[in-house]
Amino acid sequence: MDLASRLADIDARIADAARSAGRDATAITRIVVTKFHPVGLIRDLHGLGVRDVGENRLQELAEKVDAAHDLPGLRWHFIGQAQTNKVRLLAAAAARVPLTIHSIDRPKLVDALDRALGADGGPHAASPIDSLLQINLTDDPGRGGIAPADLERLVEQTARTSTLRVRGVMGVAPLDEPPAAAFDRLARYSERVRAVVPDATWISAGMTGDYAEAIVAGATHLRIGSAITGPRPERD
Ligand SMILES: *Cc1c(COP(=O)(O)O)cnc(C)c1O
């Protein structure tokens, strides 16, 4: 299958899964994860109507925004671990293109982003960046995401900034558990976030292997890579 057929196939499966779950597929954003692929893939996807792409490395995101910021209507999603010493790259990207950050996962990152985005009347003072709090769905504290016990504090801290807007939660299902169970927990964490920020309704969940389960659990944003792009080129 070529890129267009794989995209159409996944979109049909998303529509089916939404219908079976009694959900409106148009309320679900399908993000195509383009990490490690050349920027030409983003142009090809844009030509096929894709408007949401995801990257998981700051340097790569910065390079691709530079090379493809001209594509009309394209929205960028940062889904990777953000090192605090590189947040300037995120701020620079956000000044050029629409950007959502899916991976807010610690107080230090909120502080660093807030400073980089210009808390004191910088370009984002009027339009804060759409931000999702990544929650660790595993028992391993070394994995990405805030521990559920610390969730409310991070929501409150993020919501207090003028540069970041809390839109919801993000999670990656652990490998050693059925994804449906993990996504059910994520849905409950989403309720806890909405108790603090009522309109933070976004749930970013579901990848190539588990997007159907994520749709059942209420995901509003799917992050799908290899099922659409084909295998990723080797990196590092
Ligand atoms: C790479 C990646 C994806 C996409 O993974 P696939 O299995 O290729 O669909 C989704 N979410 C995150 C956080 C990723 O890093």
UniProtKB/TrEMBL annotation:
Matches recorded under Gene3D superfamilies: Alanine racemase
Reported cofactor(s): pyridoxal 5'-phosphate
Domain Alanine racemase N-terminal: 33-233
KW Flavoprotein (keyword) present: no
MF terms (GO), sorted A to Z: pyridoxal phosphate binding
Keyword RNA-binding applies: no
Modified residues (N6-(pyridoxal phosphate)lysine): 35
InterPro entries for this protein: Ala_racemase_N, PLP-binding_barrel, PyrdxlP_homeostasis
Key words, A-Z: Pyridoxal phosphate
Described purpose of this protein according to its UniProt entry: Pyridoxal 5'-phosphate (PLP)-binding protein, which is involved in PLP homeostasis.
Record-stated family: Belongs to the pyridoxal phosphate-binding protein YggS/PROSC family.
NCBIfam families according to UniProt: YggS family pyridoxal phosphate-dependent enzyme (TIGR00044)
Protein name: Pyridoxal phosphate homeostasis protein
Species annotation: Microbacterium mangrovi
